[in-house]
Amino acid sequence: MLQQKHYLISGKVQGVGFRIFVKSCAQKFPLLGWTRNLLDGRVEILAQGNESDLYQFQNQLLKGSPNSLVSFIEVKLVQTKIKMLGFTILEDGGTPWEEK
Length: 100
Prior knowledge:
CATH topology: Alpha-Beta Plaits
CATH class: Alpha Beta
Largest sheet: 5 strands, mixed
Low-confidence stretches: none
Number of domains: 1
Helix content: 10-25%
Radius of gyration: 12 Å
Strand content: 35-45%
CATH architecture: 2-Layer Sandwich
C-alpha cells in the first residue's frame, strides 16, 4: 500500500552529509520525495512509497550517516496531492512543510 510520511530529524544532522545519505537511502528502496535542511538545525523529509520500504527507510534514518548523530525522529503519516518524481534535495527552508 502506497503511503506518504513526513519526517523531522533532530540531532547532529546538518553539515555531515545527512541529506546525501537520505537521498541515497530513498533511492535504494525506492522512494519518491525530497529532503532539506531547516534553519532550526533539523532535517526535513517527505517520502512516498510502500509501507515496508518506508519502514526500512526509517530504520536507516535512525542509524544515520557515518558523521551524524540522530537524537529524535518525528514521523507523521500524511495525505498530500503533491506529485513526486524521483527523490531530490531541496533548498534550505525556514519552517517545516505543512499538509494542506
